[in-house]
Structures are given as structure tokens and as C-alpha cells.
Amino acid sequence: MIICLRASYTNNPFICKPRTMAKREKTMATPLKADMESEDRYRAPALDKGLDILELLSEQPGGLTRAEIVKAMGRSPGEVYRMVERLVARNYVSRSLEGDRYALTMKLFSLAHRHPPLRRLVAPAQPLMDAFARETRQSCHLVLREADAAVVVAHASCPGNWEFGLRIGAPIDLVATSSGQTLLAFASPAMMEDLLARWDDPDKQKSFQAIKSHLAEYRQQGHRIGDSQEVRGIEDVSVPILSPERHAVAVLTCPFVHRLDSVEGGIDDALQLLKEVADKLSFL
Questions:
Q1: Are 146 and 153 in contact (CB under 8 A)?
Q2: Average pLDDT, the chain
Q3: In a 10 Å sphere around its CB, with 0-12 CB exposed, 13-18 middle and 19+ buried, how is residue 186 labelled?
Q4: Is the pLDDT of residue 117 over 70?
Q5: Which residues pair with 227 in a beta bridge?
Q6: CA 148, 155, 251 angle in degrees (round to 5)?
């Protein structure tokens, strides 16, 4: 069978090439070019516009007017108007009473929490985390891997007048945080292979290589405890929630605050209690 291609080794734009030559040239294409061709092949412009609007509004707590959305996206008013109206009709976006400002509804939040694996973990974890926070007077949060990073999916507040904690939905760096390093320390081989493929940034790979020896130490001792890598004066206590294969499916972290007004136990007591919570949630 013969395939006709416009590009060739002659100046004739209609020269025909055998399949073997076409196949050889295809295998010589760079991965980047192949990825770009794949993205172009499966483009859905209308869907992209809708997702762009949702991502834009997610960063605007006060919402945006239609003119502001048009300006930020660099698209025509007609394109934005039709898409925004469909998002309003499906209740992903709400219109202000004055009718000139648009903001996200809680629908995306609701959909995320319907996800069965997340619900199966958070539902039993929340009361245990709340009990930990009451007993230690420290906050804690639950972290799951998300692509090449991680995200906070649950949080428990301590009962005092003030606290230090992370909000639900906060992104977590896998290499530069206690929660992330604990996930890496107990990661399955398949997870590590996937992460290394995603980390095409040389700086990211260099940072990962710098902590590899520490990851083995955390795995051996069953937890990570040490100074926060993001906030001075905080010691992070992180323990994994394990699968039956002893790989981390999630991590519980307590950003331990050394309080001067507290009569509760110290950081070692918090570690022990957090491990008890993780043990109850492991193998679910």
C-alpha cells in the first residue's frame, strides 16, 4: 500500500512515499512534537473556554464582571457571554443580584466531595482528627497526592482561641514539605515512576535527589518529625496512612505549635496520638 505525503526529499509536493519510509519518519519525530500533535488532535475549544472561565473565577473571591472576564481571557464578548450563560444555567457560576458580576458556586466543591475514594477516607478520618485536635490542642490536616503535587482534603481545628493550620484545597509541594516528603518516603514504585516522569524540571529532580537519603530514614522510623520547611517556629509531625502493601495512600500532618499557655503533652505525645489515628485509617 502507498501513502501520499506532501513533504518529501524532492521538490515535488505530490511525490508518493512507501509506507516504510513514512513509518520511519514518524518514529524519528520528537516526543514534544508528538505531544503537540496529540493535543491538537483532541482539542475541544468550547470545553477549554469553559474551563478557562472556571479557573479564572476560582482566583477571584469577589467575582468578576463580564467585561473583566473578556479582558482577562482575551476573547470576544460573544464567546464569553455564551459560555458564562451556560455555566450559570448549570449552576457552576452564579450571577449577582445586580446582574453585572459572576462568581463560582459551591457546585465544584460538592462534586469533588462526592468522589467515592475521597469520601471513603475523609468520612472516617474527620471524627478521629477532631478528637486528636481536642486532646492535643493542636490542629492537623489530611493530604492526598494530586498529579505531581498533593492537596489538603480535610482539616481539624484545635479548640483554643487561635491555631495554625492549612485550608482545605491548599496545594502541597511533594519535595519541600513534611507531608509531601512523607508521601514520597512511603510511595509505591509505580507512584515514584509516574512522578519522576512528570518532573521534567531539572531543578525539581535535583531537589528530589537531595532528599532521597532522608526519605529512607523516614520510612525506617515510620514517620517524619522536624522543623517546618515553610514557617519558622513550627515543627511538623507527619505519619502515613498505609495501603495493605504498606504504601502511603495519604498523610496526616500536625503543624505542632509549642504553646506557652498549654498543659497538654509535648510533641512526642502528639506523634503517638497521630500514629494511632493513622493506624485506624490504614488498610481501609
A1: no
A2: 81
A3: buried
A4: no
A5: 235
A6: 45
Cα→Cα distances 232→89, 173, 215, 236, 262, Å = 46, 17, 22, 11, 19
- How far, in Å, CA of 59 to CA of 52, rounded? 11
pTM: 0.63
Domains 45-109 and 115-281 share a fold: no
Report the candidate in 149, 147, 157, 139 with the shortest Cα–Cα distance to residue 179.
149
Query: Cα 222 vs. chain centroid, distance in angstroms?
Result: 24
Q: DSSP readout, 87-112?
A: HHHTTSEEE-TTSS-EEE-SHHHHHH
Domain spans, the chain? 45-109, 115-281
Strand partners, 252: 142, 239
Q: Which of 205, 220, 81, 209 is nearest to 148 (CA)?
A: 205
The predicted structure's pLDDT at residue 114: 59
The pLDDT score that the predictor gives to residue 24 is: 38
Cell of 17: 512515499
**Helix residue ranges per DSSP H, the chain:** 19-27, 31-41, 45-58, 66-73, 77-89, 107-114, 116-136, 178-185, 189-198, 202-221, 267-281
- Are 6 and 16 in contact, with CB atoms under 8 Å apart? no
Q: From its phi and psi, is residue 23 left (phi > 0), alpha (psi between -120 and 50) or beta? A: alpha
Fold observed for domain 115-281: Beta-Lactamase (3.30.450)
Q: The domain 45-109 is classified under which CATH number: 1.10.10.10, 3.40.50.300, 3.40.30.10, 3.20.20.70?
A: 1.10.10.10
- Rounded CA-CA distance 87/50 in Å is 8
Contact 183, 154 (CB under 8 A): no
